[in-house]
Amino acid sequence: MAKVSVIIPVFNESENIDHLVQELNSYFQYETRFSTEVIFVNDGSSDDTMAKLKNAPHHSYSYKLIGFSMNFGSHAALRAGILRAKGDYITFMYADLQDPLTLVSQLYDEMESKGVDITWAFRNSTAVSKTEKLFSSAYAALMRKYAVPNFPKKGFDVVMFSKKVKACLDNNVENNSSIFIQILSLGFKQCGIT
User: What is the dihedral of CA 152, 154, 160, 165, to 10 degrees?
Assistant: First the structure.
């Protein structure tokens, strides 16, 4: 059976941990196509986030806790999670569950059916202002022109990638860079879902 590693960076999420763990347990107890490993990366929280994670009832998935001594930012947290991930596929989620957990299964299905090493999830629409949409479009256009030619026109929100991609990321650690841009620029076969 395949294993999926879900990396969740957390920073001062004490009030949200009970809900997060409840949702993870609720969703993954019914997922039978793959086993799930959740890697929580505590990015220097000053509240009791780490204690709550240690005492939480993680029963529908295996889990790991990584703790930083100070806040290094979400990309450093994601990088630390990738280094410790043991899954055949790796993805990221956020503690506020701004993206549905069903995306993990949808991305997994896409990876398996298309035989690709990277799958991106793009939003159909977002509730943002015209100014934010304009900025986002301009950013994507600049990224395609000057940095990464295959940067998605609408940007992206969530990614899943194979352990082959993980091996490349582990061998080419780029501090202070975007993990997403690095994944895009590795040259692996990829696709996307909305």
Answer: 20
This prediction has a pTM of 0.88
Domains by residue range for the chain, with CATH: 2-122+157-193 (3.90.550.10)
- From residue 182, alpha-carbon distances to 7, 13, 75, 151 in Å are 17, 27, 11, 11
Q: What is the pLDDT along the chain (194 residues), one digit of tens a residue?
A: 999 999 999 999 999 999 999 999 999 999 999 999 999 999 999 999 999 999 999 999 999 999 999 999 988 999 999 999 999 999 999 999 989 999 999 999 999 999 999 999 876 655 556 776 676 667 666 666 766 666 666 666 689 999 999 999 999 887 767 888 888 888 899 888 88
